[in-house]
Amino acid sequence: MKNSVLYSESLCKRFKSNKIPHAAIIETSNLKNSQQGLNKMLQLLMCKLGKEEPCGNCEACVKISLGSHPDVKLIGLEEKSQSIKVESIRWMRQDAHILPSEQEYKFYVISPADALTPQAQNAFIKILEEPPRNVIFILICESLISLLDTVVSRCEIFRDHFGQNDNKDREAYVVAKKLSFASFNEDKLKILEIISKLPLERSYIKNVIDHLQKVFLEVIKEGGQSASSLVKKIDKLAYISDGLEVNTNINLALSNLMVVL
Ligand SMILES: [Zn+2]
Question: Hey, what CATH class is 9-160 in?
Answer without folding.
Answer: alpha beta
